[in-house]
Amino acid sequence: MNTLDINLIRFVKHFRIGSFDTDYSGKVKMTSICNYLQEIAGMHAEALNWGINDLMKQDLSWVLSRLKIKVFKYPQWKDNLRIETWPTGIEGLFGNREFKIVNEEGTLLMIASSSWLIINIKSKRPVRPHEIIKNDEFENAEKLFEQSISKIKPIKLGKLRESIKVHYSDIDINQHVNNVKYIKWIIDSCPKDVLYNKEIEEMELNFLHEAKFGDQLIVNAQSKSENEMQFSIQNQKSNIENCRAILNWK
Question: Is residue 153 domain-resident?
């Protein structure tokens, strides 16, 4: 299933969950959900003439800066999902976007909120989105969380869980590690008993600095409570922090 329903303000795409998008239990993987969100965000931006191909003509590109996902129920292999997305305007340098995921029966499964930056590819500096986006068309759009996604406070480094070398398959069209790879590394670093006995109920991430092909990274984690873990991914050589995350389990 691969149908589209394009609207100026809201954009809908239907996804069918394949076996390659599920975990050992047959439930959809969080990384697969994040890939779906990334795909539909790009398609909607393209429909609005803000797509990555449009921006690259001006030496610009979108990069995801912040992401928050709330899970109510995990869908399963072969389930059909309806994902809806819409921009919610500009806050400072951020262009914000919401997502809603439901199943065929209309049951709400997940909601997500995201903040994006427009970056000059050559200088690596952010560009004010007002130069690209007409904010007045979206400033009154529905927001799914009571508060905007905030900057995660610095995380006290805990146990070193993983050492990772960035490979070719980790790199995306912006020539740096794709945001979903960080999510994969974070989840993979969690203890087996947590992964097999609990589910991620809420996940919040800040993407702070790009990582490149060949970089050596480390994943540090600490448990704040029985159901909350915090993570920091850093460059092993420079100590530059690439990503912070908070995972809440149920």
Answer: no
The residue segments making up the domain with residue 10 are 4-137
In-domain check, residue 53: yes
pLDDT, tens only, 178-199: 999 999 999 999 999 999 999 9
Asked whether residue 10 falls in the same domain as residue 105, the answer is: yes
* Mean pLDDT for the chain overall: 93
Which alpha helices (H) appear in the chain, and where do they start and end?
Answer: 30-47, 52-56, 179-188, 192-197
DSSP of 172-238, one letter per residue? -TTSSB-HHHHHHHHHHTS-HHHHHH--EEEEEEEE-S---TT-EEEEEEEEEETTEEEEEEEETTT
Contact 69, 202 (CB under 8 A): yes
